[in-house]
């Protein structure tokens, strides 16, 4: 009986043990699955998750680099950085409507404008949002006194551009403005929303040199995206400084001279003389010593972010687009200043020599009586050689020369224009340059596609071009270049405005190489013949610029120009270089709707030469 | 010799494992430090230590009592538990969309923790008379009935995860009570159909559905519902083999891991102690569970066996679900990791269970 019971108990035991073993097996499998999964996560994928964990806790905040300065050739500052106060808002307070309202009232900026500024998704979530740059010290003081009401508003020192010489050389310098969305998409990836980027001028052309490279600050953040500490800070690499070829003093004189030239024009009755340009260049090395364009603008209005009203003024047609640098963005029919190109073409094609004489009777009928063309002096200049023709700017002489060239049928006037660098960009280190236009058969056919009757190139077109009228267009920068070619016996280096790049401690980082732009093969005697004519323009009684250079002791080779523009007053031109025997300066002056070159542009150039050669007597301007 | 017989009555193995787990828990909670800025970094560690002392007292007290005496009180224990759960639904405090807590002074009790043990005792007492041969369908259905009442009450809180623990306890006890494979299969099939119905009729709350969806695809919304899981996996994965060291888990210190002293404490362990630390903890649980089953198998009677298997089922399931959710193999629920997660109710329940096991062991021959 005992055995039976024992046997029964034994069987119960066995079954129990089997069942318990099943449970042990289940437990083992469950825990083994966990360990295998841990192995997968930690041993196999550990490195991947380590990266994720670091990405979680570390935020890298870019640190903007100080922008390089812009200096004139003697390292006088033209564009520098000024410490300013920028009002920012910490991201946590972005939705605080009451605070935004208080800020809006304080800065007098509509609240929706503020919201639009701070809500950009492209800013790093940890970066303070810029509300306004260049906040006044009074505003800063107010915010600090009422800090309890402006919790979350931070005032940071943020350098902005300042211009110690005001509007001086504003077109060459350019300006800065906040990077646009399109630029952000197209530019290099290191740019961020809110970054300032150079627009126009050397600020734009040398953006890479000036901007430097950003530093980075590594912050440790918690899950709430609150920065707890700085792990590492890499200082930004400040931008390099630009040393321009400009001379601030010459620039100032040139700007004043252009204004005076326009004032003279107004006195003469040319009320629309409101725009113009002067370029002063060293013909030996292509260094631009002064480049001025009127009307101008004050680059300081861009510094704290330009207001809409200011922007509208700058883009109003009635204000003649002050942002445009007319010295290289505008091109004009250059009038008689172009006659030196016709002279070179005539000499080189052999249709004439410097001694060849043509007779001017006032009216020119070389192409037939039906197409009578007048010289500017309707009573005629009589028999003239090249030198004499240039002196009095006889149109008939150049009609004859160009008609002879035309008859050769090889478009050689155009050919020599191009050889002298016209019709193409000079390649100056400034943005927005126009190459002008050298009209020819092909161009005319293309241009008048819709008007077949106007497609034919007539002798009249060549003849018109010879005196710088018609469809020919050249920029003031090109004008100074072709006079430099005469000054320099056929060759000129490429014009440029940056002399060298230096580091912030003044060490030279990069010098601008002067490369040759134009080299034409013309016998020196031919140039001398042209030069003699140009010299007489300013020195002999019947020279067209003699009045402007009365009493000027240094020999100047120059040429006036007056060009007709349909529907407008005549445009005044003057181009020159001096001293004749050892040219140091070349200049071009354009005054839109200023009337006669000799009476307004010439005196403006004289004003500049007075300064360049230290001449006290301002007879030219006094008249 | 008298001393010797007393010593032989004590199961040092399970005591050692349990105490090691508790020390480890306090260490980890200490390493986690303050949960929010400005809090006392030792706050939770101190309180967990306090719970541990209470727990050890409960364990000791229970070890001296004869567990068999509980049998007589099982209707009372069961009835009391049901009442307690009803109270919660009527007066409980609501956190995170669920009512799980009763406040007593500054302490909050979580009756569903105690209810687990109560149901283990009730089921064990009820099924003991089958003596390992649970062939009677009626008894099986009665056992299901006993369990289903608290399950429904807990689902109403709603706390689906804890309700599942009851299901697993029931199945574990039924297996060791000798249920026929046929019957077990029917129960499982009916259970699966019920789950299907739950989905079909949208009984789940939105957050529960989201958790399940996220579990199936953690990258679906990394900053939203998938955030907890993703951050937990980053924490554990980034711990690598040896971990970042105590006090050095960046995911933990910088608040990326939610509920890191309670439900997600294993994420911190994985991050700071690596595969080695996590593996050792899992090994500790393996030893605990196998010791528990061994105690059951050596029990003087079936009551002891059923108690031990019920406790094993409870712990094993909680370990699997809790660690499983932190490593992305289980959906996210609010089930604590036994002995490790911070919490008094769970600590006292578990230590009571250890006391029961010690009592079963001490009386294995009598």
In terms of topology, how is this protein built?
The complex is a heterodimer of chains A (623) and B (366).
Chain A lengths: L1 H43 L1 H12 E6 L6 E2 L5 E6 L2 E5 L7 H11 L3 H8 L10 E7 L1 H9 L7 E5 L2 E3 L7 H4 L1 E4 L2 H6 L9 E4 L1 H5 L1 H5 L3 E7 L5 E8 L6 E4 L3 H20 L7 E8 L4 E8 L13 H7 L11 H4 L9 H11 L8 E3 L2 E2 L8 E2 L7 E3 L1 H7 L2 H13 L4 H8 L21 H7 L11 H8 L9 H12 L3 E3 L4 E5 L5 E4 L4 E4 L4 H16 L17 E7 L7 E8 L6 E8 L4 H16 L6 H4 L1
Helix pairs in contact in A: 10-21, 13-15, 13-16, 14-20, 15-18
Chain B lengths: L1 H7 L3 H21 L10 H22 L9 H18 L1 E3 L2 E7 L2 E3 L1 H17 L9 H19 L4 H17 L4 H20 L5 H11 L10 H13 L10 H4 L11 H33 L4 H25 L17 H19 L4
Antiparallel strand pairs in B: 1-2, 2-3
What report would you give on this structure?
The complex is a heterodimer of chains A (623) and B (366). Chain A is α+β, with helices and mostly antiparallel strands. Chain A folds into three domains: 2-44; 59-244, Penicillin-binding protein 2a (Domain 2) (Alpha-Beta Complex); 248-622, DD-peptidase/beta-lactamase superfamily (Beta-lactamase), CATH 3.40.710.10. Chain A contains 22 helices and 25 strands. In chain A, a hairpin with a 7-residue loop joins strand 23 (557-563) and strand 24. Chain A is elongated and about 140 Å long. Chain B has one domain (11-362). Chain B contains 14 helices and three strands. In chain B, strands 1-2-3 form a three-stranded antiparallel β-sheet, with helices on one face. Chain B is globular, with a radius of gyration of 21 Å. Chain A binds chain B through residues 12, 15-17, 19-20, 22-24, 26-28, 30-31, 33-35, 37-39, 41-43, 45-50, 52-54, 56-57, 220-224, 228, and chain B through 131-132, 172, 175-176, 178, 231, 233-241, 250-251, 254-256, 270-271, 274-275, 278-279, 282, 285-286, 289-290, 293-294, 296-297, 305, 309, 312-313, 316, 319-320, 323-324, 327-329.
